[in-house]
Amino acid sequence: MSTEFINVDGQFYNEDEISLREWRQEWDTCPIERDYRKRAKKKENQDKFRRLHPDHLEVSGVKLSRDCIDPITGKSYKKGHKFKINGHTRDRSWEMGICEDGQPEKLRCKWREVDSIDEVRKEFHIYDSPKDVDKAADAVYGAYRHVFSHKEKYITNKELLKAGPLLYAGCGCFPNDFTRGKKATVDRLTVAALKFEDSLFWLQEIFDDSKFGYRKSKLTHQIGMTSSYLQSHQMWKNDKDALHQIKDFILRVSNGAANNDCDEPDTCTHFINEWMIPKLSQYLNYGGVLDGQVGSQQMEGYNLLMIDSYIQGKTYKTIPNNWRKYYTTWCDKFENNYQQIQVTDFATQ
Length: 349
Description:
This protein is α+β, with helices and mostly antiparallel strands. It has helices spanning 20-26, 36-39, 43-48, 88-95, 117-127, 132-148, 163-173, 186-195, 197-207, 223-236, 240-254, 267-276, 294-311, 326-347; strands at 14-19, 58-64, 68-69, 76-77, 82-84, 106-114.
């Protein structure tokens, strides 16, 4: 700590007037910006940007002072690359025609140079104090950096950059290492990244497959799905036929490819029908919420039951009554399988 007065020449932000067109076309979205397109549709944001205010014309950004590689995604950026730090949502609102005054022709941009993508992320949090969801995202970035960057392996799919699926998959597979309902930390997520490394990259390949979500569907991918997919890979990763079936299940779900033209639909169809309108489902906890409550465990068990039954080729007219207890059944089976694999690995060393 110090009360000394110091010279701050050179520490002020640069400031330029730029056109709105330049802001849209030349300044890239911040690497950890939340879904601004979705945020622009929210009533509170539309009310905020309905009339133009001088404050809306002030935006902030950063420029890279050297070539950089994002340690999380592996994406490379050239010196001089420009990132928006704020102003994402208001610009989208203007583009949507929300502002009754029209779109501004120009903006005043404050910016400074930074020498890493980590510094870009830090700058973002100066302007946007992180909420719990953002802190969790930062913890995911930190964990992946620790575990994968030195291997030059990168998780880039947005569905796998969320803490919840990874932690709750950990609770199901490795309950001695994870506790339901605990907050995401870098340490917990580092353990999860280590244990689910194969599963994460296997699932990323499927999420990035051209067949994933290529058809329009009312079904929206949810974190509860990701969690069950990670667990299922852990359970069946040594069975190629089972993994082929799981991949088929995931791709069908992503495209809403239900087959309801039969008396006993397959379990992928049941799964799709329930997740199509999750808030109306008796199986999905409050519309698909992952939390520390019993309802979440039951939902996770339902998801795993549908996947396991699909692998086994089972069809149901109605879901078996034991679906509420299947989470425990699944976890016990996984523990037995895992212990057997550990013993086998030890014996062959």
